[in-house]
Amino acid sequence: MAITRDEVAHLARLSRMSLxxxxxxxLAPQLDQILAAVARVTEVAAAxxxxxxxxxxxxxxxxxxxxxxxLSVDEAxxxxxxxxxxxxxxxxxxxxxx
Amino acid sequence: MTDAPADVVRFTAAETAAAIAAGELxxxxxxxxxxxxxxxxxDAVHAFLHVDAEGALTTAAGIDARRAAGERLGPLAGVPLxxxxxxxxxxxxxxxxxxxxxxxxxxxxxxxxARLRAADVVILGKANMDEFxxxxxxxxxxxxxxxxxxxxxxxxxxxxxxxxxxxAAFEAPLAIGTDTGGSIRQPAAVTGLVGVKPTYGGVxxxxxxxxxSSLDQAGPLARxxxxxxxxxAAIAGHDPMDSTSVDVPIPPVVEAAARREVLGxxxxxxxxxxxxxxxxxxxxxxDEAVALLAQLGAEIVEVSCPHFDYALPAYYLIAxxxxxxxxARFDAMRFGLRAGDDxxxxxxxxxxxxxxxxxxxxxxxxxxxxTYALSSGYYDAYYGQAQKVRTLxxxxxxxxxxxxxxxxxxxxxxxxxxxxxxxxxPIAMYLNDLCTIPANLAGVPAMSVPAGLSEGLPVGFQxxxxxxxxxxxxxxxxxxxxxxxxxxxxPLLDAAPAL
Lengths: 98, 499
Hints:
Chain A has helices at residues 5-14, 21-38, 73-77, and strands at 83-84, 87-88. By secondary structure, chain A is mainly alpha-helical.
């Protein structure tokens, strides 16, 4: 099963990651090789085997819903690429034409 | 205050701590000696991404003052340590070896970091690593590769290659690494160290920047089994801040490291982890170590774990899938790099430009691969099937541990390879993890302990134990280490070339 350059470009869009033409050219054949290698898992007869998401059995962990100390606004914003009025400043998230 | 002995950097962590506790050495002297060693050799080795000399000396001076005041100190008080740059520590940058986090100062300590501070360990700085812990050579660091102290033209393993190189180059007696598919054990193996991946859930992941959440685990790298045990005990234990942390007592690893006997233990040699692709020198050192354990009274049993053959492909579906999800947090909005924010581009465009500029080739490969494996139409065939294989691998372990106390194999199929040798061949690189991945998939603990040299380069011997029986690793590893050191007449690292 082959993965095409167009599919890699689509996956990059889904991943919110621009890729240059050179990167697409390099990645498509590599991913094709890797997928051919990992496809070996399909050789295992496992129809009736339950999946494992975590090696250790886990249950939901709850704590009391009480107010606790947290980061101050200044600490939370200290590493922000841009901040304004005690808030993260982000690029526009809506299209101006809509 | 007298000058510290010239060989203080060659002290083990246990020796350093004992000398400080006895007042024969100050924490400041031990720290300064380590910093001097870093200044001398790290231009060549490049184990560190950040050295916090001032912070380390301040911590050390505080320890000396508290000792002078008669206060009780931790078991590793004053011992210098290199912290892998994937764990947060206040006051130091955390980059994960990535451009996308260049210059990021985290606002909180990881639980591992907090426990190191509570144990009075002196954190020297942050150790280099493959970007976001994806790699087996530390060549994927955005800040340049780390070099193997045994041969500067070779890789120190990865992803915890800065951690392994720092300890093997005597820049620090201890380091913390993280292990998702072998990233503590493989670097330990190729640099002649002891490295342990604890049982999943045994060490808190709070403040460990996630790569593959169901597999990641922090653990110790050290020059001796006892040192590794002391560090393991210091960082392990339940943490309410990590919902996957398990509330069970810390296995008695320090006691086990001192036991030095394997009489009557049943040791299983995994049939699937040998044969084609294993270098003759690696296989020979492994076989000799098994024979030595048999001489010491262990019962050697050959064990088959048939699904281990599928561990590598399952891992390279599960880990990239979790990675593609985890790395979505690097969105250029709240912290880290923001690229292409020209006032015109929208948030989605800025996100895409930032991730293009901030991630290196291996991270991009894995994000794309994971996105593919999780997309509708492929999910069942790839990710779902890999999770089923994961169940079968856990069952192989469970069946094996009904017959034996521990399982053993070589840690890696080869010794350290030259820098650049596999850089353009992802699949060849992935094969480094062949022997180490099964333990991550099943969540069981595993150790690499030095088995000797092949053509002048270290070979690792892997021990795997049932979940939360981490102490068995230390018992077998400590016994093997003592027997090999006695036969050789000195610790393996004494054979490393001077830097």
